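Item description
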Amino acid sequence: MTNTKQASCTTRRALLLGFAALGAASLAQAAKPETVAVQVWKDPNCGCCKDWIAHMEKNGFAVTVTEQGNNAARARLGMPQKFASCHTAQVQGYVIEGHVPAADIQRLLREKPQALGLAVPGMPVGSPGMDGAAYGGRRDPYQVLLIRKDGSTHIFNSYT
């Protein structure tokens, strides 16, 4: 093989490998799920809210926090007071009240039901953010409620 022909083959091989690498990078980028933005309203001193936010971030959500309490946000977003918890969030038009697991929010966003959002009323021990070492491994049963726009509920998930 002549030097010119060998150089041409080497250049062609390098180009093909370069295109293959670009294609692989593009596929990897396309396969990476989009980050979902979540707005959270909470009291600036609430530690369990911070733990729930860490749970959300660990599960791929991009969280923005407003540290002014959540009563006004809950009322403005239409979440009935009877489902209240220590923080309120909004994600893709849905209201999330309390310690809702990220997996349930991901399911909500996949299924897209006609609803106001999800709620875990109160602060059940064992729910995300209420599950740290301070609770000694205790896990109370709780339900994630789907809150319909008329205020009625449906059990979205149960944890025992």
